[in-house]
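FW: tagging you since you asked about this chain on Friday. Here's the raw sequence from the shared folder, copied in full. Didn't touch anything.
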Amino acid sequence: MKVLAIDDQAEALKQIEKAISAAKGPDKKPYEVVALADHNEALKRLDAERFDVVITDMVMGMEDAEGLRVLGKLIGKSPITIVLTAYPKIPNCVEAMRAGAWDYLEKDPAGGSDAYENLLASLKKACQRRLEDPESGRSPEDAKWVQKHLGDLMRDYAGKVVAVLDQEVVASDTSYGKVRDRVKKKHPVAQPTIVSIPDTEVETIE
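HL: got it, structure written out here
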């Protein structure tokens, strides 16, 4: 299973990578780990490669709101996402889970539990879910965005098929196949929401 670990603290990132590399996934094979210190580089990497799970710090020198925004982008790229943070806050935990995070873990957990044991247990469960459902982890935010902006989409793309990624129309054409192929060329591993826009009255998109 392929894991992307993100943390701007070099020592923390090294320890996370070491712990995961020494473990095996639910498929009994060692994890393949890519460790990055920059979330912008991570977002670019997610556009080029498919990862099963992302493990990320949520702060990385950012304000809470910005950290949540970056987290939303990571989740929207498709992998199951685990937050591992040294600054746990209940509001942040709630917002992270609302955004679609798989788990929210502390680097220094209370009660004497081991942070890396907790991480590996969560990672194993996440990878098991990924094996059972390869598309698990996808964010529903793009589908919700389509619902919310259907009127605008009907005005601009009536009768066409559109692909929405990260709450933005990234391709449109007259057929699903053409849109799918166009998106795959630009974003080979992303999982956009692709819908046909009605050219009559607004309809509910399932």
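FW: Residues 201-206 have pLDDT under 50 and may be disordered.
HL: agreed, and The domain at 2-132 is CATH 3.40.50.2300 (Rossmann fold).
FW: great, closing this out.
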